[in-house]
Amino acid sequence: MIDILIADDHSVVRAGLKQILSDIPGMTVVDEASSGVEVLDKIRKKDYSVVVLDIAMPGKNGLDVLKEIKSERPGLPVLMLSMYPEDQYAIRVLKSGAAGYLTKESAPEELITALRTVAKGKKYISPSIAEKLAFNLDFDRKREPHELLSDREYQVLCLIAEGKTVTQIADELFLSVKTVSTYRGRILEKMELKNNSELTSYAIKNRLIH
Predict the structure, then answer these.
(1) Which of 58, 86, 146, 163 has its C-alpha lying 20 to 30 A from 206's C-alpha?
(2) How do residues 123-148 score in pLDDT, each as one tens digit?
(3) How far is the CA of 139 from the CAs of 6, 130, 133, 142, 168, in angstroms?
(4) How far apart are CA 191 and CA 43, in angstroms?
(5) In the chain, where are the structural domains located?
(6) Which residues lie across from 27 on neighbouring strands?
């Protein structure tokens, strides 16, 4: 039996996932979590076959939680589920130890296949991610400026490029406006760009947003 912990801060998403998996033989959603802290608390007290983890979580975001899970329970497969497109986060989360990455727009059949794959200790990688991974393994190529950013800086970059204000980004990432402004300053400095317009142009050119 594949025992699943679903971690998402939206109860509607958790209910939807439970509904999808309710009739699937050999799978059961045994627990839910609505924050990163709750996820870590649960994995310390109980064994699960797979954790389905959202990237955008209150408190500790999914990327931070993933790293802590891999530190404390390296053998526990984590399937990242996100509203963000593959282009933005798939490579980062796989490099951080995730067993797979799916967008919330994925078909239920793909979710079921992914869960079965990662529960066996394998990675679930879609063809498009496989292509990007192959490109990333070309060690001779020059690293792009956005690859020098931390996970949080990268997250802020993508949201700025999508046209969101500092206040909107702060609300979405559960950060203060001042903290987001600090990240923005670091991003501009690291990438040697002058303003949001240049950031957006860079993100479009490098297909970080659609």
Answers:
(1) 58
(2) 998 877 777 776 666 555 567 889 88
(3) 36, 16, 11, 8, 37
(4) 37
(5) 2-136, 145-205
(6) 2
